[in-house]
Amino acid sequence: GAVVSQHPSRVICKSGTSVKIECRSLDFQATTMFWYRQFPKQSLMLMATSNEGSKATYEQGVEKDKFLINHASLTLSTLTVTSAHPEDSSFYICSAGGGAGNQPQHFGDGTRLSIL
Amino acid sequence: GQQVMQIPQYQHVQEGEDFTTYCNSSTTLSNIQWYKQRPGGHPVFLIQLVKSGEVKKQKRLTFQFGEAKKNSSLHITATQTTDVGTYFCAGPLGGGTSYGKLTFGQGTILTVHP
Question: Is A2 on the interface with B (CB under 8 A)?
């Protein structure tokens, strides 16, 4: 089945650091990928839609200058949390496989970000 | 805005008991999807329902989509310890038809006591 790989799985860093998270579709091309955020024991909240070759579309309340998304190829999207602060600590998950057609979402393993 | 509500938030059962989680949308959905997330893991796709009144089964799991396409349920018969996790329903964000851009319910955390 389709596989989405996300890296790194865990990041612990100091406040003010920028952190880059990669999301790769391993056996299919993804013109669209999605980035979600999940706080402990809460639901997934869509942050943005990553579009290959064009600007990402951000959901209301998500700062585009804070969460930079780049989707330079059909198999890779990156999310950079710039100048991260403790309130940015969360579980970030990407997904791919949806869009046009009857394709279910395949999620990456997620990245647990802890900002000290 | 569109909301997808899911109840209960928590469910504790003894192994062998049945379990049901319910999902309600404030708007009509073109489709609804169900995911399972194990503790510490990522959501894994279980099923999608598209047709009004649709019922699908996967072994001990039964999924239903309401006639009005605004509600859905997941029922597990005779739970096992391997069923532990959080079950999410999800529908297309903004009432669209995309299977990718999703709004998730709050999830039901299921614990099963052996």
Answer: no
